[in-house]
Amino acid sequence: MESSNNTQSPAVRLKKSESSFEAAIREGLGNYPKRLPSRFIYDKEGDALFRRIMDMPEYYLTNCETEIFEQQKVQIIDALEPLGEGFDLVELGAGDGSKTRILLDEIIRRDMDFRYLPIDISQNALSGLSKKLVAEFTELEILPQQGTYFDILEEMQQWKERPKVILFLGSNIGNLLHPQAIDFLQKLRAVMGPSDLLLLGCDQKKEPQIVLDAYNDPAGITEAFNKNLLERINREYGADFDTERFIHWETYDPESGTARSYLVARESFEVTIPDLDMQVNFEAWESIHTEISQKYDNRTLEWIAGETGLEIAASFTDSRGYYKDYLLQVPK
Ligand SMILES: C[S@@+](CC[C@H](N)C(=O)[O-])C[C@H]1O[C@@H](n2cnc3c(N)ncnc32)[C@H](O)[C@@H]1O
Fold it and tell me: What is the pLDDT of residues 149-188, one digit of tens each?
């Protein structure tokens, strides 16, 4: 699915190292300890499961960011007014855009000159998003781009004609540990012009049980989401993973603010992946690390921004202080 072309915009070539599911399986399941990157959860089934996660009462992140946008869209879009002469609104990992539409609505209401460039590894997500937004906002100029963040960052080097407002919402940054996040933001900083802005959604540290529940709900939706990595290997490469043989396991370290998702084998067994000519052995209680969901506080974010060469211009939080959107700018 990562290699399928987008019919509405030029196809973006994906770098094999970052975007090939096959390479990730070979490397991640061929090594010890085993790991599979969470970005490969998002195929059609993974996108649908993530939409169900966003509706779960335990997954507070979506409600918090929705509340921030609904209550503070005026202040957020006020900060973009200096770019009123025309800008590109670039969204990294746009997903279904259900929250972004609140900001789009406010920008359109003010008749600002802009075009919207959503980027996602999932062509399925982009197609759904485009269809929905085109129906809702008839005048919206939308240019979806399929690819990974890093592919698109390279492409962005050429988008210099107009200032950019980059949206990185939904705590997508939280899928990166601090050194990777700093590296990522430095690359983003390198393609930002002096008046470009970055709106960065960051889940905040909070009562540990609330964090754990968001990634381990009693209905098993987050479990199914995590296990979609294995189901996807079954579907795309003919593997014989029996996902019942794995436990979905979540941990949260309140000191580092890092939540981690694992799949843990209940017993020893062998899995065959015929299309990749691979056999994978699992020992009893061996794990596959699948996802990082990093939580932040102001101090950490200030440090990360400083390391990146950006500064915090403003921040917007929800009524419970669970989540923050930071507006980052290039120091004047
Ligand atoms: C957790 S969802 C969040 C979606 C949306 N930003 C929101 O706030 O609701 C993450 C989205 O980012 C996309 N994604 C994950 N890793 C990616 C990567 N490395 N490059 C591009 N897109 C990625 C997924 O396909 C998915 O649609």
Answer: 888 888 887 877 899 999 999 999 999 999 999 999 999 9
Tell me the domain boundaries of the chain.
53-206+297-329
Atom of ligand 1 nearest to the CA of 120: 22
Give the up-direction half-sphere exposure of residue 59: CA atoms within 13 A in the CB hemisphere.
21
How many angstroms separate the alpha carbon of residue 332 from the centre of ligand 1? 31
- Which atom of ligand 1 is found nearest the CA of 98? 9
Ligand 1 contact via 121 beta carbon (within 6 Å)? yes
Output the CA 268–ligand 1 centroid distance in Å: 33
Q: Which residues of 270-300 are buried (b: 16+ CB within 10 A; e: fewer)?
A: ebebeebebebebeeebbbbbbbbbbbeeeb
- Looking at the chain, the whole-number percentage of residues with pLDDT higher than 90 is 87
CATH class of 53-206+297-329: alpha beta
* Per-residue pLDDT at 15 exceeds 50: no
146 lines ligand 1 (CB under 6 A): no
